[in-house]
Write a structure and sequence with these properties.
Length: about 325
């Protein structure tokens, strides 16, 4: 059965999402049970160090900063946006708040004396715009800013595309805790349904390329979403990939991977919890209003996926 967005009395199917958004007057926020699923650490936390799932991650020669993109336009509307067909559309990039989140992290990096890095980023708009903020503030030359076209791509959420983001995240946490090969149900609109194992297999290609080419370098990795980075963190810290959600970064925040792994092995690490924007029904409704205003601009020149705006809408 498909999950649906339920703003008040109106039910929004994934295929009627945006042209039905004007009907929304009340947005249902996650209840206490959903919030508990989102914030609850894995059983028997802290997790003792386990065998490294892949030897590559047990002997990393380079220093890695894992950076999550700032808040995006679809996150501001609490809507899942995981179909890669439109990921390069600039309208799907950062909100003003998202840019501010990234800028604060850059200030934090500079306060640590971290100023010289090579950036590897997913080439979707959210990660690319995050990379732009970092490189401009840290004066990193364009030659040191490298796009990845597939390997750091956000996890595809299948039939959960276009549903409420927080509810979808809670569902995926439950699936991932059971098995790293679990995934959302498939769909017919081209949105992939990726497992944790598939995310890991992709990102490993990027890390292997860096490790085989450099030794002792400094790298910022900007994933297409938080899952890419939490899976990387779990693999590097040598813990069960089913518990990767315990390493979820908040929007625009970062891990210094060496520090993270040291904290995990010493039993000092605690999952990052707390409110993630947007936090109120009014903020979510404002985010959805902005999506309605964007209209067809949210889609690539192919108009693929523009059915969510309603019949007959094309560029």
């Amino acid at each position: 059965m498909r999950t649906r967005v339920e703003p008040g009395a109106a039910q929004l199917s994934r295929r009627l999402l945006l042209h039905a958004l004007p009907l929304a007057t009340v947005v249902r926020l996650p209840d206490a049970a959903t919030a508990a699923v989102e914030l609850q650490p894995p059983p028997s936390w802290p997790i003792p160090p386990l065998d490294i799932i892949d030897p590559l991650f047990g002997r990393l020669r380079n220093r890695y900063i894992l950076m999550r993109p700032g808040e995006t336009t679809f996150e501001a509307a609490d809507i899942v946006d995981s179909n890669p067909i439109n990921k390069q559309n600039s309208e799907r990039g950062l909100t003003d708040r998202g840019r501010e989140q990234v800028a604060r992290s850059v200030d934090a990096l500079r306060a640590r004396g971290i100023t010289s890095f090579t950036i590897y980023y997913d080439n979707g708009a959210r990660a690319a715009q995050t990379a732009d903020v970092i490189s401009s503030m840290m004066l990193i030359p364009r030659s040191s800013v490298e796009p990845e076209f597939r390997w750091l791509e956000a996890r595809g959420l299948g039939e959960l595309e276009g549903t409420e983001l927080r509810e979808a995240a809670a569902k995926m946490r439950q699936l991932d805790a059971r098995d790293m090969d679990e995934r959302a149900e498939p769909t017919d609109d081209g949105t992939p349904a990726d497992s944790v194992l598939e995310v890991f297999s992709r990102l490993r290609n990027t890390i292997a390329k860096i490790e085989n080419s450099f030794g002792g370098g400094n790298f910022i990795i900007i994933g297409g979403d938080a899952t890419v980075l939490s899976v990387f963190a779990a693999a590097a810290c040598g813990v069960d990939l089913r518990t990767h959600n315990a390493y979820t970064l908040r929007q625009g925040e970062f891990f210094d991977l060496r520090e993270l792994c040291a904290d995990v092995r010493a039993g000092r690490y605690e999952p990052r919890v707390g409110e993630q924007a947007p936090t109120t029904a009014a903020e979510i409704e404002e985010g959805r209003r902005r999506l309605r205003e964007m209209g067809p601009r949210m889609f690539s020149d192919t108009a693929a996926g523009s059915w969510v705006l309603g019949a007959g809408v094309r560029r």
